[in-house]
Amino acid sequence: MLELPAVADVIDDDAAGRDRRPRAGRAMIPFALAAAFCFALSSVLHQRAAKHQPQYGVADPRLLLRLFKSRTWLSGWVPDTAGAIFQVLALRIGTLAVVQPVMASGLFMAVLIEAAVVRRRVAPRDLIAVAIGIAGLTAFLLIADIRPGVSSPRPAAWTVPAICAAVVISACVLAAHRLSGAARGALLGTAGGIAYSLAAALVKDLTGGRHGTLLATVVSWPAAALVVVVAIGLLLNQTAFQNGRLAAPLTALTLMDPVTSTILGITVFGESLTVTPVRIIGLVLAAATVAAAVWLAATSSAASR
């Protein structure tokens, strides 16, 4: 599933300045729930298709070549596209701090849909991991209270964050080689979430107007980097789906994406956050809660293949 929860970063500045009347705020909830359901269904279809392929090594591109021939996998892009549309509609009338936690409810939906499809009982550990993760993500987004920065950062602003992201992704992939099952799925989901957040940040850069004409934008370095990052994220995500129950990779991906996007917003786009001791402690605790949820999903029973 090419879920882009961090697409919020692309239009968050615009959404934050829109009319926040109560009626509009209520209207965004059905859109966010619809997006969550579509992304959940897409995830289940993509995981089901990946599970039916031969077990490949970590980040083996042959998996994608086989998936492109799978009707189940290709059909998963229909709800995925619908989810992206509903997400944009929700963000046009709602804020990131509200829309993102509502959309994270798609984790519950995905776990339930997966259990129905494979005709087995829902694992309580999966539901607990999802609940903890959504709580941590909600707290993180509410406490962060990010203020807009620049729409088009200087190229040099990308250097350190991009290198750090590449190092973390590489470390997750290398560590995944030594693991199997849910643990491998969670690590690859984490790497995929970071890659997708990079992709969303690159889209935001491309739409900031700094690159001039459409042709100049298409041939710019962020456009080339976007193609590479999306391909890497897609490969990591689909490989993750081959390992363990859906909850492990999907929890890691869904939670890591907005958290990483927040960090990229601060370091690359100059977005700011009100720094107080209480707020910093709250952010650390919220991030620790998210990490605990990923760990809980990653340590699911080895029998959950």
Structural class: mainly alpha
The total beta strand count reads: 2
Strand content bin:
under 5%
Mean pLDDT: 82
The helicity comes to over 70%
Low-confidence stretches: 3-22, 301-305
Sheet with most strands: strand arrangement: 1-2
Question: Count of helices?
Answer: 14
Main sheet, how many strands, which sense, barrel? Answer: 2 strands, antiparallel
Distance between the termini: 19 Å
Descriptive account of the structure:
- With 305 residues, the protein is mostly helical.
- It has 14 helices and 2 strands; from the N terminus they run ααααααααβαααααβα.
- The protein has helices at residues 8-16, 22-51, 62-67, 71-75, 77-93, 96-104, 106-118, 124-144, 159-177, 181-206, 214-218, 221-240, 247-267, 277-298, and strands at residues 146-147, 272-273.
- Strands 1-2 form a two-stranded antiparallel ribbon.
Attribute tags:
305 residues, mainly alpha, two-stranded antiparallel ribbon, 14 helices, globular, disordered N terminus, disordered C terminus
Set out the fold topology.
Elements: H1 8-16, H2 22-51, H3 62-67, H4 71-75, H5 77-93, H6 96-104, H7 106-118, H8 124-144, E1 146-147, H9 159-177, H10 181-206, H11 214-218, H12 221-240, H13 247-267, E2 272-273, H14 277-298
Antiparallel strand pairs: 1-2
Helix pairs in contact: 1-5, 1-10, 2-5, 2-6, 2-7, 6-8, 8-13, 8-14, 9-10, 10-12, 10-13, 10-14, 13-14
